[in-house]
Predict the structure.
Amino acid sequence: MAANRHLLVLSARAGVQRYCAQAGIGVTVVYDDRSAGSLDAAVPPGEQRLYVERFNDAELVRSALARAGADRFDGVCTTHEKGVVLASLLAAELAVHRPLSTRTAVACRDKHHQKALLRGLVGTARSTLVPDIRQWNGEVPVDLLPGVLKPVLGAATRHTYRLHGPLDAAAARAAVLADPSWQAPRTFVVESFVDGVEHKVDGWVTGGRVRFFAVSRYLRPCLDIKDGALLASVALDPAAAPDLYARTRQLLDTVLPRLGLRDGVFHLELFERADGTLVFGECAARVGGGVTVDVLQAMFGVDLYAAAVLIALGEQPTVPAGAAAYGAVGSTFLPSPVHDVPAPRELAALPGVLAGRYEVAGGKSVDVRKKTSARAGHAIVAGADVEQVERRIADVVEWAGRRVLRGEPR
């Protein structure tokens, strides 16, 4: 392992900075207001911080680096979906190691382009591009109904809508145009709706070979957050679901080479139909969001943040050996509004809860319908099998509902 390594990080992430500090890796963190909360109050040794207005704006980032005289790195890393393409561009110019080409970064980012690359190789949704939603008349091809409207460069289901006909299309268009942000998306894609049980797959690939992956099942499809559902999932033990893991590996061995992803972490979503067929959803060249890293660390003893850093530096992450620590580990977001914030120890006292906390102050509410990353708090729950974890998650949510929504006594 080389000494005196230095990594450029786009968008602060506590787990990344923590690993770099432990491993003696120098780091330059480019951050904006949205990720400032992931920085420690005191700047640790070996860490440089550069503030910009938007961490994924090439002009802002490149100018900040120039002002700081930071023009050579061993690698570039980001855990944020919207920083992947810029990270690849900066690595090509400034880094010694360049595991992710810009061609691959785009293939793992653009939802319409991605499916065009994979169509005919794996099952996936049909789609059509909406170049500018302001000019869209709401017409949707019959073979795409029911369908889903989403930004072509979207993330976390923000600005994502179910479509059953013209009225839904008109309402979705109106909702997008009502967004006052100048960064509101304009280019969208309409995809045919895929039924089935939704799963996520998180892992990494090096040298063109998948070295590690874990399959987790969502308790309800991600789109159900639009109806107010709390996002929850359970990581599955390969020993308990060998057939699903085998079929998932086959899909990965087709999808990742076609996207050009030979070295990097990935977060992939798929659907399992009633007949066992797997249908590709989408794939990102980044670590999974939410508390995915924490769940997989508890289940398999693996640190996906460390894997992302090491691959960006041209090194090999350690593949976990041995059986999973639990029969299953899951996570759930917690309900709001929060009348009274429970202490983490109260959550930890519930059966199976490994960790959890509320992340908002009393009196606050979080609208989980906006995006899958919106949460008032979270809990990580372990058990002997998937069924027990599901029951425990339901119990945690029910307890939290009583405890915080109505402020029941401790």
